[in-house]
Amino acid sequence: MEFAAVLKTGPVVIPIVVFTGKSYGAWRDWFFAATKPTMSSGKSFIDWVAFLTFQLPVYGLTLWAIGTDVTDIATLFASTALLMLIIDRAIGLFLQVMRSLAGAGVKINASIATKSQQNCL
Question: Pick from 121, 108, 84: which is nearest to 33 by CA?
Fold first, then answer.
């Protein structure tokens, strides 16, 4: 993806990320509640899968909507998936802390949400 295209996507992607943030938090909470990972590696994997199945398609549709070539989108998907495998757990922990500080935890139901929030950390 050329630098000009990156500059073109920023103003489009940022509002979409803000708009989908709460939905992504709910999606991530649901994944943790449904899978109940106990080991750190399992939690990292769930963070990665939640990102790949929610944020990556949103990103891809956004790129497609602004006219990015499908080949470039596929390349970006592969590189983003690899990068997120490495850094997604740290991002997930950061998001969880920020949501907790803001009182913005998503409630699936009382027992699952409490367990889910504990499982995420």
Answer: 108
With a CB cutoff of 8 Å and minimum separation 6, the contacts of 70 are 64
Read off φ and ψ for residue 109, nearest 5 degrees. -160, 165
* Cβ 61 vs Cβ 19: under 8 Å: no
CB 35 within 8 A of CB 46: yes
Residue 34 tokens read as 């449904």
121 close to 29: Cβ distance less than 8 angstroms: no
Total-model pTM: 0.68
Length of the chain: 121
- Number of C-beta neighbours around residue 51 at 10 A: 22
d(CA 10, CA 58): 14
89-109: pLDDT as tens digits: 788 788 878 878 877 665 544
Q: Which tokens belong to 88?
A: 């997604």
8 in helix, strand or coil? helix
Q: Helix 3-35 to helix 70-102 angle, to the nearest 10 degrees?
A: 50
Q: What is the mean pLDDT of residues 70-96?
A: 85
